[in-house]
Description:
Layout: E1 2-5, H1 8-20, E2 27-30, H2 46-60, H3 72-87, E3 89-91, E4 102-104, E5 111-115, H4 119-129, E6 139-143, E7 149-150, E8 156-157, H5 170-173, E9 178-179, H6 182-198, E10 202-207, E11 210-214, H7 220-227, E12 232-233, H8 234-244, H9 251-263, E13 267-270, E14 281-284
Parallel strand pairs: 1-2, 1-5, 5-6
Antiparallel strand pairs: 3-4, 6-9, 7-8, 10-11, 12-14, 13-14
Helix pairs in contact: 4-6, 7-8
Amino acid sequence: MIHVVFQEADIAVLEKAIELDAKMAGLVLQIRDDFAVGPLGKVYEAEGFQERKAWWEEVLEYSPYLADFNMTDDRWTVHQLAKYLKEGIYTFQAAEGEEPKVYREEEEAVIWVWMGQNQHDVCGYYWLMSQLKDFQGRVQVLYMNNLPFINEKGGIFYPVNLFEIQPKEFLKAKRLARPITLSEFEVDPDEWKKLCNESAGVRILEGGKKIVSKEVTFYDKDILTAVGSEAGKLNKVISNTLSKMKLKTGDAFLVWRIRQLVAEGKLDVTGDWAKGWKDIVVKPAGMATSSEEQPAEEPAQ
Length: 301
């Protein structure tokens, strides 16, 4: 069995759940791209792929994530998932000079696609399942859509992300596994194609699996509110923005939007981007620069 998730933090919690139940034993893989943001036109073709790659390189510039950025990873994963479903073999990408590692399935190969109730996971699901329609019946989906779980304090909550769920609670969640239906393999790719044709800057989840396109400026109001009327360290501005947002997005996307807002004259920054995020101070547009107005240095972590 291969489990597929869409956020890095989901990997650890699902692997812990697998340790509790041998029946869930299998490989855990991640689709790394966040398809809830950025261009999607002709995303499965070379032209669209290159456009999206160039956009992500711009977004991740100066970020701590650029060194690990590789747009081909997800393509390789999907290619190997198809091979796994055909032959029971999944081959990992190998570093230069190394032998590739191989995962083999002795029984019938199946894939479990896990997603939380958020646009990141649902968009990732659409992108992935549209490429696996030849394997109807062998691809299972587990969607934590508006379902209650027990948190660490014993209270009931409705998780947005898989990583919020306790590992032991996944033992109940596994009962949700069901094959993606033939009808879904017909309807969902059409819905995804519509979103790809719109190729908006942002996509949000309105409920169920309904994804709606929004302008690239969708999160700007949250950013401007977090900045307020005082200068603040970039990392703190991003933390405050994310903590107050109802619909979350990635920190790299928010930083890219801050850079766009600076270019539009709606915000100012001081510091050297080339030195990374920690060097940047964000200010309301037109705010005078003085030593008194610079935020105090945050204590070292």
